[in-house]
Amino acid sequence: MPSDAATPPTGEEAIGLREAFDALPHNQRFAAQLFFVEGLTLAEIAEVQDIPTGTAKSRIFHARQKLKAALTGDDQ
What we know:
CATH class: Mainly Alpha
Structural class: mainly alpha
Number of helices: 4
Largest sheet: none
CATH superfamily: Winged helix-like DNA-binding domain superfamily/Winged helix DNA-binding domain
Strand content: under 5%
Order of helices and strands: HHHH
Number of domains: 1
Shape: globular
Radius of gyration: 13 Å
């Protein structure tokens, strides 16, 4: 049964999510943490990381793809 996006993961889902997050490259993990957990905007992430907004957007994009692949078992 797929979990609801608004429901926090528990048990194995939480462990899988933490492992997938930990496997991200540092710059993507930091950007993803700021975006998904802290709720910062792309502009705010760019400021915090001292990078262009487009780079912040790219880091979030790649992090999202890697997390999705890891969590669905579709590793590339």
